[in-house]
Amino acid sequence: MTSLISRFRWPMRGLMAMTLALVFALSSTISAFASVTLLRLSTDPYTNTTSQHATEVEPDTLSSGSTIVSAFQVGRFFDGGGSNIGFATSTNSGSTFTSGFLPSSTVFATPPGFYKRASDASVAFDAKHGVWLISWLGILSPSGPVDVLVSRSTDGGLNWSSPFVVNNDGHFNDKNWTVCDNTSSSPFFGNCYTEFDDNTLGDRVQMSTSSNGGVNWGPAQMTGNKAFGIGGQPLVQPDGTVIVPINGFTRFNFSLPSSPKMEAQVGVPPIESRWWLSVCQMEAFVPRSLFPLLKWTRRAKCMSSGRTVILSLVVPLVISS
Q1: In this structure, are residues 222 and 206 in contact, taking their beta carbons and an 8 Å threshold?
Q2: Nearest by Cα to 139 from 110, 176, 111
Q3: Domain housing 24
Q4: Contact call for residues 174 and 115 (beta carbons, < 8 A)
Q5: Residues linked to residue 64 through DSSP beta bridges, in sequence order
Q6: Residue 15 lies in a domain
Q7: Collapsing DSSP states into helix, strand and coil, what is residue 201?
Q8: Is 134 exposed, middle or buried (0-12, 13-18, 19+ CB in 10 A)?
Q9: Is the entire prediction scored with pTM above 0.85?
Q10: Across 30-92, where does the E strand assignment appear?
């Protein structure tokens, strides 16, 4: 009779081989990381006692050609925001960086601005106008108002302007994100878009547009169905269509309609200046011709009771420029 050890000899050998392979792969990965030289881009210079120092958090980084621009909060406050927004720029594909801090932003900046704190840095590049943008939140008080602003650089991200206002309506605006249309054949080439939510209005989704390199921004526009959400990140398609994957709040006004009604809602031509919303189980309700527009979104997880849908992840909101 075959012994128990003999019966499992080959599976045990296979398991041992797999284990040794994993150990080797892990050790190789660790060795590879150990050989990488880290480059410090910036250091918190501020000393105000109201925030925690030696902190630089929540970076956003964008590259265009050989230029890389990163922006981040510096001197993080325990309950939100930082002493200023820092930047680090490379013009040689990351070999070296020049770093600094936005001017005329917060009371801690040089020269000082009038905002108590700054938060939520987002980097964009406008190829038509040759302008780099850092959009950020100017916090007058932790409970609001919070303004949406952009600082501009016309020399490749090395020097930055005083802020330009995107929205200062006195509300608590939050979670800004800025992108630009950099496709020369797009009918909206040179437009830049800043999406944010208005927390004062229950996180209503808003979008503002600039067509002159971030100097002037149009009035904030809501979605056609006055949607609510947070954390949107616009994406511009080559034809000028702007897609905004966002965490949608369905407790306010989203419901799951029948398939024909949904198709009528989302089946809009890509050139019309209207927003559309699709919700859970997109394949069941969105025309197949629109699937390519959803390729960046994660599929929403849903719990339904009757015809009400609660989304726990991402709802795609799409606008046409």
Answers
A1: yes
A2: 176
A3: 4-34
A4: no
A5: 67
A6: yes
A7: helix
A8: buried
A9: no
A10: 56-64, 67-76, 82-90
| Residue 229 domain flag | no
Q: How far apart are CA 27 and CA 40, in angstroms?
A: 25
Q: How far apart are CA 226 and CA 32, in angstroms?
A: 50
Nearest to 50 by CA among 86, 85, 81: 81
Left (φ > 0), alpha (ψ -120 to 50) or beta: where does 297 sit? beta
Report the b/e string of 266-304 with b at 16+ CB within 10 A. Answer: bebeeeeeebbbbbbebeebbeeebeebbeebeebeeee
227 in any annotated domain: no
Q: Does residue 132 sit in the same domain as residue 192?
A: yes
* Contact between residue 60 and residue 121 where contact means Cβ atoms under 8 Å apart: yes
Condensed to tens digits (0 to 9), the pLDDT of residues 55-108 reads: 999 999 999 999 999 999 999 999 999 999 999 999 999 999 999 999 999 999
Residue-averaged pLDDT of the chain: 77
| Residue 264 DSSP SS3 | helix
Q: What is the largest CA-CA distance in the chain?
A: 87
Own/partner contacts of 18-22, CB < 8 Å, gap of 24 or more, are none
| Pair 67, 184 in one domain | yes
Token look-up 């800025």 returns 178
